[in-house]
Amino acid sequence: MSINNSTDKVTTYSAQSEICSPHQLLNDIISDTWNGRDLAWRLFLRNVRGMYRQTLLGLFWAFLPPIANTSVWIFLRQQGVFSTGDIGVNATLYILTGMILWQSFSETVQMPLKILNQNRSMISKLRISRESLVMLGLGEVFFNLMIRVLLLLPALLWFGVSLSWVVLWAPLTIVLMVLWGTGIGLLLMPIGTLYQDVGKFLQLALPFWMIITPIIYLASDTFPGILLVWLNPASPLLLFSRDLILLGSSNFWIPAILVGTMAIPMFLLGMIVFRVAIPVLVERMST
Amino acid sequence: MIHSATSNTDDLILNVDHVWKMYCRNLKLSMRYGVQDLAREVLGKGRDRTQADLRPGEFCAVKDAHFQVRSGECLAMLGPNGAGKSSMLKLINGLLKPDAGAITIRGSVGAMIELGTGFNPILSGRENVYVNGSILGISKSEIDKRFEEVVEFAELGHVIDTPIMTYSTGMKMRLGFSIGANLRPKLLLIDEVLAVGDVGFRMKCFAHLRKLVEDGVCIILVTHAVGMLSRVATRSIVFDQGSIIHNGDLETGCVVYEETMGASDRISGKSQMPSSTTATGTAIKSTTITNQNGVATREFETGEDILVKIEVQSDSALDDLNLVAALWSPVHGRIASMSTANQNVTFSASADSTIAVTLRFKQVPLLLGAYHFNVSLYGPVPTEFYHRLTGVGNFRIIGPPTCSLGRGINGIVKINHQWKIG
């Protein structure tokens, strides 16, 4: 057909799955991610500006959840409801750091489903770079994380924690944790968009998931307590990051390295599933 | 989706090659099929499916669509609601995957499907121009360059820094259109967004689209405002129940579209429109359209004579019967209504008789389009109602061509007139 004999880019849509041309698929993901960076930035600015413009307390609302959560747990600990064990660092700081990391992880798991629902109208009507929505979601996760880290820094100074040089690894492990969580979220997103049960289950399961993640108590390195680290996908990178920040060393480096090496492939797999799933999902959004 | 790039040029921009698209209206089944389709996509098992492969509860939203669009063409996509136009537009835009066939596009695609997508009501018009521009694929530097132009086109300079939630719906639509107007793709898709603002602004929008076509931008326009189409469209495609029933000139497309708006079934005699009647045995038996020679036909030119032959049947003797005939256009609604009473023509029926009444239109002034009648039968007073047939006596005016560019006649009727200088 003569349309293929042109100097312009030629695009063909057919029933064939994109996954049948893996090289092309990866190229498309990379180019759409690059081309969608401006859109992601604009949408990020729109959301952040819109989020706090009509509030009296502004950014304070970003700080409030970890403060409130930590206060509740500290209160319960002081009442003897639970014990953190011998953690070797101030319990408030220990719980606050864990809470900040957990909130980022739980946000990343829920993020893909959330951004798709929030941008349902846009995604079902316009051919935008879908990858930009993932970037937007990641941007919001990191923005919230940065705000919470701003809360953590004075707390570290206040409790006199002397940071070791290994803390420089923490940003990398936190990024890997975010990518790992996003990968899980991206894999859940297609089914979650079709069946709302997934979203409802996540809402129900996340508080329990937090309890079985050693955030407010000391993780055991002996059987069976160690299973909470090895079998819980949230634990390895979260605990390892917290240990690097507060203790300068960690007993969980093996599970952390294992999960850390899987984080980027998991994220890429999630991106591929996200991309090939979108047309199928858009079809269900528009009928 | 496959991309390729080689040399040589051609004016073919879009090739829709025997495309099919299936939907399922049953929510639970649709979700289940969604899981199956997801699995197929992820495992790379996607394959062509046509009508023979329909799953239970599915229907064809687009059936074997096949057409091409070339550079500088403005294609009007017409059809009643649910005919498959918007699905076709989504397929071309890459939002949906075809179930069979292929769509090949040369060059960039822009879309004005929903004006003001992504507007945040709390942010100002200025901020939203950048947000919406990014969503439409316009770079920040391009928006910077054209910002004043956008605001001027939308005529919103005085409120551009106030939150958009203070704008009226029309103002938001104007701003949305003005941003989209800066798109310069090879192929521009427009879906029902031309009902923007007042008449003056709409004219400005059409003028802008005409300029784009002149500059070589290819436009596919979905609209129900057929009266406006000749301002910009050069060709038309009419969809009905997923199939393309017309692919050709605009004028014929408009007539075909009007017929599909409820009249096509009646013309072909496939169905009888509902009639209302009292319990009496007096009713309108039939309605036939003929030309001045008494030959049954449904196609006329403006200025020809049209005869409507109405047969009334009665099983009892009745005096002073009256007929009312209302002329309708599926698109424009009721055009005129005329009654025997108005011309002091009454007729009587004896028991078990059939009476023929002829309504003659001399030199009918109607312009291009499809038309039909609603015919009612009354007694001597309007409260004495016997019978009504709706959607009968369908006919179409097929010529001469109209023109909405100020170089001919246009509208529903041709009014006798004369221009004089001085």
Describe the protein.
The complex is a heterodimer of chains A (287) and B (422). Chain A is 71% helix and 2% strand. Chain A is mainly alpha-helical. Chain A has one domain (22-46, 62-286). Chain A starts with 9 loop residues before the first strand and ends with a helix. Chain B has a domain at 273-399: Distorted Sandwich (Coagulation Factor XIII, Chain A, domain 1). Chain B has helices at 27-42, 85-92, 125-135, 140-154, 169-180, 199-214, 226-229, 250-260, 264-267, and strands spanning 2-4, 12-24, 58-70, 74-78, 100-106, 109-112, 187-191, 218-222, 235-240, 243-248, 275-277, 282-290, 299-301, 306-314, 318-329, 333-339, 347-349, 353-361, 369-378, 385-399. In chain B, a hairpin with a 2-residue loop joins strand 9 (235-240) and strand 10. Chain B starts with a strand and ends in a 23-residue tail after the last strand. The model of chain B is unreliable at 1-9 and 264-274 (pLDDT under 50). The chains are: A mainly alpha (287), B alpha/beta (422). At the A-B interface, strand 1, helix 2, helix 5, helix 7 and helix 11 of A face strand 1, strand 2, helix 1, strand 5 and helix 3 of B.
Q: Could you tell me the mean pLDDT of chain A?
A: 88
Mean of all residue-level pLDDT scores of chain B: 85
| SS elements, strand count of chain A | 1
Cα-atom radius of gyration of chain B: 26 Å
Shape of chain A: globular
Largest sheet of chain A: none
Helix-strand topology string of chain B: EEHEEHEEHHHEHEHEEHHEEEEEEEEEE
Largest sheet: number of strands, sense, barrel closure of chain B = 7 strands, mixed
Cα(first) to Cα(last) distance of chain B is 64 Å
Number of strands of chain B: 20
Instruction: Look at the structure and give the CATH class of one domain in chain B.
Output: Mainly Beta
Largest interface: A-B, 57 and 71 residues
What's the multimeric state?
heterodimer
Number of helices of chain A: 11
